[in-house]
Amino acid sequence: MASFVDRVVLHAAGGNGGNGCASIRREKFKPLAGPDGGDGGDGGSVKLVVDANTTTLLEYHHSPHRRATSGTQGMGDDRDGANGGDLVLKVPDGTVVKDLDGNVLADLVGDGAEYVIAAGGKGGLGNRALSSQKRKAPGFALLGEEGDEADVELEVKTIADVALVGFPSAGKSSLIAAISAARPKIADYPFTTLVPNLGVVQAGQSRFTVADVPGLIPGASEGKGLGLEFLRHIERTAMIVHVLDCATLEPGRDPITDLDVIEAELAAYSGDIGIAGGRVPLTERPRLVVLNKIDVPEARELADFVKADLEARGLRVFEISTASHEGLRELKFALAEVVEKARADAPAPEAAPIVLRPRPVNESKFTVRRLGGEHDYWFEVRGTKPERWVRQTDFNNDEAVGFLADRLAKLGVEDGLFKAGAVAGDEVRIGDPKNAVVFDWEPTLQTGAELLGGRGTDLRLDQSDRPTRGDKRREFTERMDAKAEARRELWTERESGHWTDPEDS
């Protein structure tokens, strides 16, 4: 089973936003006290975050589909829905994020660096937030937006100071085991190293990391063997060390030929441009040559023979033996010298800039185009606001559809359709062609809610005919005055004898 994975395709989806709530508050003596529907919660986002303790993408190789949690729906009594939690995916330092077309989206270098690959959807507004003086009791709420979905490719490009390159079985794994505490698998057959190995080397006061890159062969830059899979791991290194096998018995192999072949492969390999460590060509970086296995007498003679030719090319040459540790001390201090110089020449790291995301100045803009043929045509409306409003509309609610029509008209979409030549009954599509909302356009949209009254009103809450407190006082005073007048009239009639029984007279 694989334990090191440095390239995966990740399918990420942000959480959906919760729907808003349409609710009316009911209290004692106030059965219809106004809208109190809360807003839906926002969906969580999927983020990549560099973690120093993560060294492989194996987790995402086994589980490539990741989705953040969605926001919950708003509720009555002014209760907003809960926001969905962000899904944080930990990746190794040096991870490059690309789309499936190979375009670099982000280069994550440094502990804590992060990148959002799938943003969560916004929650819908409840009818409490949609109420106004003209729309006192909306009978609808906005739907939550769906979260973004993205398919990205993750690549790990090892962060190391020194890269050991060479043919299979040249002794790279033995060298990194001899100069560091790393313990890679070592054997006498080709392609023993199937994954890059990292080792930390201490030379005096200097400490640096060395990467053991799996063996290269002719054609590695074109995908032959394992080279193309692991050449990217040397893109960020400060220097390259050629490990040449002086004891090989393969025909046509010698240190000079091996060096020329590997140099040609490094020159042919084209790394990503525009990311850290990818701007300087590999052939222009500092390099050393290590003549390995001089503990074998024939190998020592060959190393002495080719050393002058290599130095004539301007290369520093070291003769070593990983078996007897001969020459390793000198090699470590030479590597430390080059690494320290590269660190001193490197620009000072800059703090991560603060990213501000202001509202786009052209968010309210939209386009109206006539598409199709002479007879089979339609009008396409594209824009941030129209498309978002359409996604948030519940088309099963006539009042919500009327609200959408009002918003589009206020934005100027109807005027744009008129200018584009649209007439009543023409087909209009709003949004991406893959999932656009299609309808027959009517300049004035009539809905069931309008037949019952003004859009956004509720006849149950129309209290304009209810008497005021002053009216009630006047009515009570008039009623009491009328009663008093009736009593006086009855008393007057009694005193005048109108109530006397004729038989008693």
Automatic annotation (TrEMBL):
It is found in: Cytoplasm. InterPro entries: G_OBG (IPR031167), GTP-bd (IPR006073), GTP-bd_Obg/CgtA (IPR014100), GTP-bd_prot_GTP1/OBG_C_sf (IPR036346), GTP1-OBG_CS (IPR006074), GTP1_OBG_dom (IPR006169), GTP1_OBG_dom_sf (IPR036726), OBG_GTPase (IPR045086). Residues 160-340 form the OBG-type G domain. Its EC number is 3.6.5.-. Residues 358-443 form the OCT domain. Keywords: Cytoplasm, GTP-binding, Hydrolase, Magnesium, Metal-binding, Nucleotide-binding. Residues 2-159 form the Obg domain. One of its GO terms (biological process) is ribosome biogenesis. GTP binds at residues 166-173, 191-195, 212-215, 292-295, 321-323. PROSITE patterns: G_OBG, GTP1_OBG, OBG, OCT. GO terms for cellular component: cytoplasm. The keyword Chloroplast does not apply. Residues 61-85, 455-505 are annotated as: Disordered. The keyword Cell membrane does not apply. Mg(2+) binds at residues 173, 193. An essential GTPase which binds GTP, GDP and possibly (p)ppGpp with moderate affinity, with high nucleotide exchange rates and a fairly low GTP hydrolysis rate. Plays a role in control of the cell cycle, stress response, ribosome biogenesis and in those bacteria that undergo differentiation, in morphogenesis control. This is GTPase Obg. The lineage of its organism: Bacteria, Bacillati, Actinomycetota, Actinomycetes, Micrococcales. The gene is obg.
